[in-house]
C-alpha cells in the first residue's frame, strides 16, 4: 500500500514537471494579469485538477487585489508628482523599492525553515536571484546618477523600510496577497520602462552602455540571471548590450519576467526553479522528487505543525517495530555466515560490536530463516549495492561530462579568437614585408648614388647593429604588453569597420597598412626610441637637514621659461629654467620668492597672463598672485578645510577651479570675490582639472575612489563617473581634450576616454599607497612618482613603464630614513622630452628621455 501511494505521488510530481518544461518553451516576454484560469493541453488526463475556489475565497481574493491596487496607485501618484521629468531619479526610487519584497519573502521563509515548516529550496533560489537582478538594476541607476540628490535617497530608503515591514506581515498572513502586490509593483515598473524606451529610444541608442550592465548581462556566470526567469529554459535568453537603449530594453524585459514569476507564486506550490530539473527528466523517472514540506502562511504552518506532533508518537512505535525486524534479519544472516566459526569457538566481529543490543532485539522470539531464504536476502542486498554503485558512477560521469563540455566550449572560443588573431598577423606580416622590400630597394638606390661621391660616407651607415640589438632586447622584455597593445588596436579597427559596414579593403591606407597596424607601428617606434631617464641638471630646494623640504607642486609657466615650486616650506619660489640648465651649481637663488601663511598644496599658472599664478593651501585659501609685483591679486576663503588642488582654465583665462577636504568643488572668477559655482560632493576632493579644450568641463578626483566628470552647465549630476580605482583618486590630468589620466593610492594609473565614456588602460609599476607622488602628462607620455623614490614614465598605449630614474639619498642624513623618501611632484615641459621632478628631501632634478 505504501509503495502504491509513493508511486502515485511520484508520477504526479513528474506530470507537474513536464507541464513546467512545456511552459518554459515560450520565448516572448509578456506581462499577464493575475488569476487567469490556467489550462494546458499537454497535461495528462489523470493529473489532479485544483479545486474551484469557494465563494468566501473568491471574495477574499477580490478584497486582497483591491487593497493592493489601491496601495500601488497611491504610490504611483506620489512618484508621478515628484518625478514628472526626472527619469533616472524615478528609476532609482523604483529599483530601491522593487528589491524589498524579495528580502521580505526570504526572511519569512528562513524563519519557517528554522521551525521545520518549510523545505522548498526553489522559492529561496528564485527570490534570491530576483533580488540579485534588482540590485544590478539599482547599480545601473546609481551609475547614471539617479541617486545624486539627497532627497531621492532619503525618500527611497524610508519607503523601503516601511515596505519591508508591511510585506513581512502580509507574506506571513497571506503569501498570495503579498505576491500579487509585488506583481502590481513590477507591472508598474515594466510600463514605466516601456514608456521611457518608446519616448527616448533614439537618444538612448546614441549613448554608451552602462559598465555595470555590460558586466551583468554579458559576464561569465549567468546562472543567477537564468534563475529568476521561471518561464524560460536556462540559457534561452542572452542579451546583447551595445548602447544604453539595450540596457533599458533588458531591464524592461527583466521586469516582465518578474511579473510572470509573481503570478506563478500566487498558486501555492506552483513555483519551480529553471535549474531544478535536468533536460532528460521527462524520460527518466529518477527525476521525480518526493513531496517537500511547505505551508501557506503562518496560520497554515501552525496547523500542520500541531497535526505533525499528534502523529509522531504513532509513527515512532511503527518505526521501532520495523527496526526490530531489521535486527532479526541481520541476526539470521550473521548466524548463517559465521555459524562455522561459532562452532569452533570463534565469534562474529559484527556480533562482538553490537553486543547486548542485538541480543535484546532478538530474544523476544522470532522465526528462523532457511539457508535458501538467506541466500535470497544476500542476492537482494548485492543487487541493491550494485544499483547504488551504478547510480553513483552515472552521477560522476555526468559531472565529468558537463565539465568537459564547458571546457570544450571555452577552448573553442579561445581557438576562434587565436585563429582570428593569426589571420590579422598574417595580413600584417605580408604588408610589412612589402613595405620593407620597397625600403630596401630605395636604400640600394641611395647607396649607389652615395658611392659615386665618397666611400667614407658608407661607413656612417654600416654600424647599426648596436641600436637595433638594444631595441630588439627592449621589445622582448616588454613583449606581453606590446602584444596586448597590438591585438587591442587591431581588433578595435576591425570592430569599427564592421560597425560602419565597410570592407577590409576600405580600411587600408595607401601603403597597404591596416590603420590598426599603423597605430601600433607609431606606438612601437615611440616606445622603443627611449628606455631611460638622464639627469641633465639638479638643484636643492632648501636646507638639506630641514624637515620641511617637501615640494608639493612644481609647474612651468606659459612659455616654459620659468617654473614655480611650492610645498610645506610656506614659500612660492620662481626659478628661471635656462639658468638652471646652463649654470653648473647645486643651489640656485630663485628670481622671485613669495611667503604664504600656510603650507601649500598646489600651483597653477595662468595660460594667458604670464605673471599670474594660483595657489591652494592647507587652510583652504585659494590665492591668485602677480609674480611681477610679488603681491596677491585675489584671495578666496570659502573653503572650510584644506584645499588640495587648483587649476586655471586654458580657454577662459579668468576662470579657475579648486577642490577641498570639505567635499566641495568651487568655480572662481578673477573678476569677482565670491565663487561662481559650487558643487557639493559626498567625499573629499583630492584633485581638479579643466578640460584643455573647454571651459565647461571639469574632471574631479575624489576620495570615493571615482573620477567625476562634470559639465558646468548642469552640475546637478556628473556627466560621467569613471569607476575602477580601489582607493582615493589623488590626481587627474588631461592628455588631450578627450583623454584623461588619473592616479590613485592603489598604486595604479588609469586612462579614460571622456568623449566615449570608456576605460582605456591601467598602468602598473610604481608604488603609491599613502602620499601624493605627482602626475604629469604630454600627448604621448604619462609620468608619475613613486614611494620608492623613483620617477617612472609610461607610454599611454603600454601598461608597463617605458623608463625610470631613482633618486639617490644622502648618507649624511642617515640610512635609516632613506626608505621614507618619495617623489612628491613632477612636471613635463610642454610636449617635450624634458621633465622637472622633486622629492620629499627637497631635491629637484631636470630629467630627459634618452635612448
UniProtKB/TrEMBL annotation:
Gene3D superfamilies: Alternative oxidase (1.20.1260.140), YVTN repeat-like/Quinoprotein amine dehydrogenase (2.130.10.10). Residues 30-45 have a biased composition (Basic and acidic residues). GO terms for cellular component: membrane; nucleus; respiratory chain complex. Signal peptide: none annotated. WD repeats lie at residues 636-668, 722-762. It is found in: Membrane; Nucleus. Its EC number is 1.10.3.11. Residues 30-52 are annotated as: Disordered. Keywords: Coiled coil, Electron transport, Iron, Membrane, Metal-binding, Nucleus, Oxidoreductase, Phytochrome signaling pathway, Repeat, Respiratory chain, Transferase, Transmembrane, Transmembrane helix, Transport, Ubl conjugation pathway, WD repeat. CDD domains: AOX. The keyword Mitochondrion does not apply. GO terms for molecular function: alternative oxidase activity; identical protein binding; metal ion binding; superoxide-generating NADPH oxidase activity; ubiquinol:oxygen oxidoreductase activity; ubiquitin protein ligase activity. GO terms for biological process: proteasome-mediated ubiquitin-dependent protein catabolic process; red, far-red light phototransduction. Residues 371-435 form a coiled coil. It comes from the Eukaryota. Its cofactor is Fe cation. Binds 2 iron ions per subunit. PROSITE patterns: WD_REPEATS_1, WD_REPEATS_2, WD_REPEATS_REGION. It holds the Pfam family WD40. It catalyses: 2 a ubiquinol + O2 = 2 a ubiquinone + 2 H2O. Belongs to the alternative oxidase family. This is Ubiquinol oxidase. It comes from Dovyalis caffra. The lineage of its organism: Eukaryota, Viridiplantae, Streptophyta, Embryophyta, Tracheophyta.
Amino acid at each position: 500500500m505504501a509503495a502504491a501511494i509513493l508511486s502515485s505521488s511520484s508520477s504526479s510530481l513528474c506530470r507537474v514537471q513536464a507541464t513546467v518544461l512545456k511552459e518554459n518553451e515560450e520565448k516572448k516576454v509578456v506581462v499577464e494579469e493575475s488569476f487567469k484560469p490556467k489550462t494546458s493541453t499537454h497535461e495528462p488526463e489523470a493529473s489532479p485538477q485544483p479545486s474551484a475556489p469557494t465563494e468566501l475565497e473568491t471574495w477574499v481574493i477580490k478584497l486582497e487585489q483591491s487593497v493592493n491596487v489601491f496601495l500601488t496607485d497611491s504610490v504611483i501618484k506620489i512618484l508621478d508628482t515628484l518625478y514628472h521629468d526626472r527619469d533616472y531619479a524615478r528609476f532609482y526610487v523604483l529599483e530601491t523599492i522593487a528589491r524589498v519584497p524579495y528580502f521580505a519573502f526570504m526572511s519569512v521563509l528562513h524563519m519557517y525553515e528554522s521551525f521545520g515548516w518549510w523545505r522548498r529550496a526553489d522559492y529561496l533560489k528564485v527570490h534570491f536571484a530576483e533580488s540579485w537582478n534588482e540590485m544590478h538594476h539599482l547599480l545601473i541607476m546609481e551609475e547614471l546618477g539617479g541617486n545624486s540628490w539627497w532627497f531621492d535617497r532619503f525618500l527611497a530608503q524610508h519607503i523601503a523600510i516601511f515596505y519591508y515591514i508591511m510585506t513581512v506581515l502580509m507574506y506571513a498572513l497571506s503569501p498570495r496577497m503579498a505576491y500579487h502586490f509585488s506583481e502590481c509593483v513590477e507591472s508598474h515598473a515594466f510600463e514605466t520602462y516601456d514608456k521611457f524606451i518608446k519616448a527616448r529610444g533614439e537618444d538612448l541608442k546614441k549613448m554608451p552602455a552602462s559598465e555595470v550592465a555590460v558586466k551583468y548581462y554579458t559576464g561569465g556566470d549567468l546562472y543567477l540571471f537564468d534563475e529568476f526567469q521561471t518561464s524560460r529554459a536556462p540559457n534561452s535568453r542572452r542579451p546583447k548590450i551595445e548602447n544604453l537603449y539595450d540596457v533599458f530594453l533588458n531591464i524592461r524585459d527583466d521586469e516582465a519576467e518578474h511579473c510572470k514569476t509573481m503570478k506563478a507564486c500566487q498558486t501555492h506550490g506552483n513555483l519551480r526553479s529553471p535549474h531544478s530539473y535536468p533536460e532528460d527528466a521527462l524520460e527518466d523517472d529518477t527525476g521525480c522528487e518526493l513531496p517537500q514540506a511547505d505551508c501557506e502562511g503562518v496560520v497554515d504552518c501552525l496547523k500542520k505543525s500541531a497535526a505533525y506532533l499528534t502523529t509522531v508518537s504513532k509513527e515512532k512505535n511503527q518505526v521501532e517495530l520495523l527496526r526490530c525486524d531489521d535486527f532479526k534479519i541481520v541476526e539470521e544472516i550473521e548466524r548463517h555466515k559465521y555459524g562455522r566459526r561459532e562452532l569452533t569457538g570463534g565469534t562474529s566481529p559484527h556480533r562482538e560490536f553490537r553486543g547486548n543490543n542485538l541480543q535484546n532485539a532478538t530474544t523476544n522470539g522470532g522465526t528462523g530463516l532457511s539457508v535458501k531464504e538467506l541466500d535470497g536476502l544476500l542476492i537482494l542486498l548485492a543487487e541493491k549495492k550494485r544499483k547504488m554503485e551504478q547510480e553513483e558512477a552515472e552521477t560522476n560521469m555526468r559531472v565529468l561530462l558537463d565539465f568537459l563540455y564547458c571546457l570544450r566550449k571555452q577552448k573553442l572560443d579561445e581557438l576562434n579568437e587565436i585563429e582570428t588573431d593569426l589571420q590579422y598577423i598574417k595580413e600584417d606580416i605580408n604588408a610589412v614585408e612589402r613595405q620593407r622590400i620597397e625600403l630596401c630597394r630605395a636604400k640600394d638606390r641611395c647607396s649607389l648614388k652615395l658611392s659615386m661621391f665618397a666611400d667614407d660616407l658608407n661607413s656612417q651607415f654600416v654600424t647599426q647593429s648596436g641600436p637595433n640589438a638594444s631595441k630588439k632586447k627592449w621589445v622582448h622584455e616588454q613583449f606581453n604588453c606590446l602584444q596586448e597593445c597590438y591585438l587591442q588596436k587591431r581588433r578595435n579597427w576591425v570592430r569599427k569597420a564592421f560597425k560602419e559596414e565597410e570592407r577590409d579593403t576600405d580600411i587600408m591606407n595607401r601603403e597597404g597598412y591596416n590603420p590598426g597596424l599603423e597605430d601600433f607601428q607609431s606606438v612601437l617606434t615611440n616606445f622603443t626610441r627611449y628606455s631611460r631617464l638622464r639627469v641633465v641638471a639638479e638643484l636643492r630646494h632648501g636646507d638639506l637637514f630641514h624637515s620641511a623640504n617637501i615640494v608639493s607642486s612644481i609647474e612651468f609657466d606659459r612659455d616654459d621659461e620659468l617654473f614655480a615650486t611650492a610645498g610645506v616650506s610656506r614659500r612660492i619660489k620662481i626659478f628661471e629654467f635656462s639658468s638652471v640648465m646652463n649654470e653648473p651649481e647645486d643651489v640656485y637663488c630663485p628670481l622671485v620668492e613669495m611667503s604664504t601663511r600656510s603650507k601649500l598644496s598646489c600651483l597653477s599658472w595662468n595660460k594667458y597672463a604670464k605673471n599670474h599664478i594660483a595657489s591652494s593651501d592647507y587652510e583652504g585659501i585659494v590665492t591668485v598672485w602677480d609674480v611681477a609685483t610679488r603681491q596677491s591679486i585675489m584671495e578666496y576663503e570659502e573653503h572650510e578645510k584644506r584645499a588640495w588642488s587648483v587649476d586655471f582654465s586654458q580657454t577662459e583665462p579668468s576662470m579657475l577651479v579648486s577642490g577641498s577636504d570639505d567635499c566641495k568643488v568651487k568655480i572662481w572668477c578673477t573678476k569677482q570675490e565670491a565663487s561662481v559655482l559650487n558643487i557639493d560632493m559626498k567625499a573629499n576632493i583630492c584633485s581638479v582639472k579643466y578640460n584643455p579644450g573647454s571651459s565647461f568641463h571639469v574632471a574631479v578626483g575624489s576620495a570615493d575612489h571615482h573620477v567625476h566628470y562634470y559639465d558646468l552647465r548642469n552640475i546637478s549630476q556628473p556627466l560621467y563617473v569613471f569607476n575602477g580605482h580601489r582607493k582615493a583618486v589623488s590626481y587627474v590630468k588631461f592628455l588631450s581634450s578627450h583623454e584623461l589620466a588619473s592616479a590613485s593610492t592603489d598604486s595604479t594609473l588609469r586612462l579614460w576616454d571622456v568623449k566615449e565614456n570608456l576605460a582605456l588602460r591601467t598602468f602598473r609599476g610604481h608604488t603609491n599607497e599613502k602620499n601624493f607622488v605627482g602626475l604629469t602628462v604630454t600627448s604621448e607620455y604619462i609620468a608619475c612618482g613613486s614611494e620608492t623614490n623613483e620617477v617612472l614614465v609610461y607610454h599611454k598605449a603600454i601598461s608597463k613603464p617605458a623608463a625610470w630614474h631613482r633618486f639617490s639619498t644622502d648618507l649624511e642624513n642617515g640610512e635609516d630614513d632613506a626608505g621614507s623618501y618619495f617623489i612628491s611632484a613632477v612636471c613635463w615641459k610642454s610636449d617635450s622630452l624634458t621633465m622637472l621632478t622633486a622629492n620629499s628631501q627637497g631635491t629637484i632634478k631636470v630629467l630627459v628621455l634618452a635612448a
